[in-house]
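Narrative summary of target 7.
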Amino acid sequence: MRTLVFDGRTGAAGDMICAALIAAGADPDALAPVSDALPVRYAVGEVEKNGIRATTVDVLIDDRTVETDGDHDHDHGHDNDPSTSGSDEPAEGAGVHRSYREVVDLVESMGLPPAVESTALDAFELLGRAEASVHGTDLDETHFHEVGADDAIADVVGAALLLADLGPERVVTTPVAAGGGTVEMSHGTYPVPAPATTEIASRAGFRIAGGPIDRELLTPTGAAILGAVADGFDAVPDLAVERAGYGAGDADFERHPNVLRALVGDGREPGPDGDREKRDDDRARAGQPVDGRLAHDDIAVLETNLDDAAPEVLGGLQETLSRAGARDVTIVPTAMKKSRPGHLVKVICKPADAEAVAERLARETGTLGVRQSGASHRWIADRAFETATLRVDGEDHEVDVKVASTTDGEVYDVSGEYDDAAAVAEATGLPIREVLRRVEAEVREQLPRE
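Modeled conformation, tokenized:
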């Protein structure tokens, strides 16, 4: 399995992640969509850090922007020699400081490939939820300061683009050094790691470590990018290294090279000797996929009983709780004490989101308590979506079809999306079940045969 390993023994920041990815083989030309959308350009260079040659990525203000009839005609790009064009002024903190919703709208307007957009939005959601938790606000009301400026958006989206270009099948990270001491922020002086970084680390799947110096080494942007793409490992895993690259940070330290190392290679499976069942059990407990099975997914299950909730409130829980992090919401009619009719609400979410989901559930329903049940994980299918085209009376209609498979790609279920099928049925007069039958058959026909 082609694996990318981040080794963050002296921390990680957005620019360091972008630089490490380029040093590990990603093409800087992949960054063009960001320079097309924002008045910034990337300057890619090299520097020596404590005897290690490392790549640098600086996000600079692009002063070659020309306004025409109210529109912006951007002529941006990355340049290995930033002195040849544009400005040498760093873009740090430049541009509009946006709200979470404004950042999401901007990223969605860039026309990025779906996987790249999803990665970037996952990182910004981690940032948004961390800020909302720290400041006690709702996600959509969260206003970014440092991480809402152009350079932070360039770091997050740039990392997503470079990662897609490098194309690893799996990304992991060793424990990341957070540093120590204090850091100056817009609201004052705070201990390292900063509050947002600490909150992101509690939600992400990797560990942080203090030191090795009294300086902020892990930024909220760096933590959010790693949290969106990487699984945590205690040490560099078994890897046949093909390429190693180093992404440099701005600071210089006396005894510690300020670099983030990226390793790319074949993450080898255990050899043929030994008990496969034991190996599979070990992988499942570690949260790693097991060939031919369903994938292991850590979850929390929340429950509450309601005896006075209005139907309108119950009907809106799926949407409101999903915005707080719920993955699934089930409402079951039940009998309460004194035989009164009521409802049992069950919610599945990631463990890191449990507190936020429970609070939203309480606020929406007025319940006096939310309990967390004993379930700690679930087994889920790998899911992908295909688009089927149904031609009726000379017109084409599209329906999304969900394809469920095991971890080694064996498909065991094909299901058309009901809402899409209902819309086609309304437009064509066909029964919904006939629409579903046809689109599912089309997708099954296109699947690879054994």
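The CA atoms of residues 113 and 161 lie 9 Å apart.
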